[in-house]
Amino acid sequence: MDLSSKVRAAFEAAFPGNDFSFVRVLPATDPKFGDYQCNDALKLAKAMKKNPREVASMVMEKLSGDEAISKIEVAGPGFLNITVSGEWIAASLAAVAADKNLLVPQKGAGKRVVIDYSSPNAAKQMHIGHIRSTVIGGAIDRIFRALGYEVIADNHLGDWGTQFGILLKGYRELLTEDERQNLTVATLEKCYVLSAAKAKEEDGLWREACKAELVKLQQGDEENLALWKRFIDISIGEFERMYAKLGVKFDTYRGESYYNDMMPGVVQRLQEASLAVESEGALVVNLEDEKLGVAIVRKSDGGYNYTTSDLACVESRVKEYDPERIIYVTDARQQLHFKQWFSIAAKTGCKTKLVHVPFGLMSFQGKAISTREGNLIRLDELLSEAVRRSLAIVASRNADGTSAEPTEEDVRLAEQIGYGAVKYSDLSHDPVTDIDFSWDKALALDGNSGPYLQYAYARVSSLMDKAGVSGVEGAFSVEEPAERRLALQLLEFPGAVVRAAEAYKPSVLAEYLFQTAQLYSSFYQNTPVLKSEDAVKRARLNLCALFGQILSKGLSCLGIETPRHI
Ligand code: ARG
Q: What is the pTM of this model?
């Protein structure tokens, strides 16, 4: 039984008939207080108007004699400080190793979540600004899957709007036959830029023609619709090339256009429920009471907007998937938008939990990312650069130092390192913070970086190879302080995955993994493994093996691969 469950049972035995699901044991903040601490006697005492130290003592009494616990005391205002026995740690490690999920609780079994992330605009190339939603969303997706949830990853493409009128006109008149035949997203982007520039011309003729193309498209003109569809398919094809590199996979690509026909119905129902009212020709929902301003759901020209589209989208998702929750990963500037329509959805009776995960801005090597700064780097280019730089690392590890052509294997390895570095440099930060991407930090072999963690994995793998073992076998045993610290940390893995999911912050897991790798490294420096005598050696190798498994599973939850050899 895990320690929290034991302490919970002690609370129940001491104070029968109460709900103690809140009781939790936390790792001690300072080892001099023991291994773990429980502060919940204070909570209970407050509710029962009792002396907290007395409450803590009564719980402590119920725990006396438990073999898991080697020392327990009441401290301060009513904390329980607990030191566990080496036997309990060893048995707990064995339980983690024996479970195919490494005891990550399958809290999501039988539950479904929809995660809406990445969602770039079609007909444009993905650039560096698209990394955050893709990488953070991808990690949340994997973390939820690790917890047993059924995840539907949906890419809410920006695939509708005025830009398509501009594109259609440009496609017909500004591209060569060859460009039209071999259409790529790069060509579409160029076509848009040229056509949009012409739409600014004084006489307004081009602009009017673009508008006419858009109207034809909206009215279902077959030719325009077929071209539009082609633009979208080409865009998705190009995006999927990026997603394959980033280890991200979508179940559906339902762009904004998918919800078009549903919008009039949504607005009608809002009107019927008197939630939406006329204001200056537009239809709005007043959210002033909640200090969320006013949300337009139909513009004065009769068109719908982002709010309407998200309201239609949530209705459709709830009806089709009946998810337990829907998670949206976008930049923090969209916070008001989400607050507004979450509130409207709730008023219309939507019971599904809606979660917005906002992320901060990213700068590149100290400079804001913008076309003006000239650093609106294409994602493709950034990823190629990551591979190029990682190849240099791989080459420098090749013993003879020759600059021979990289082998296919070298390139594959450089991809794993480079993509991992780019992803980890984002995921190691709390999503809400603004971050700066720098090559030096992302690729640092000795800092909190993807490559650092991948090296830690490769090192422990080669240790196992050297010892001729492939995994955990036989018992654990935990004696030395450095061993004990690492072991206790390994036992925290399931909790770290759960906390990362509950907070929608992959950074919680990243931080856990970094700390674990540091504790492993100090264990390895202080404790002989291969040179110790047989029984001890085997037990220590088990600890190393479990560290490797946890590191690999944890990184895979972040979408980062773990090559065995670097
Ligand atoms: N396309 C939007 C953007 O580029 C993100 C869409 C997010 N999803 C949603 N259902 N609103 O920012």
A: 0.95
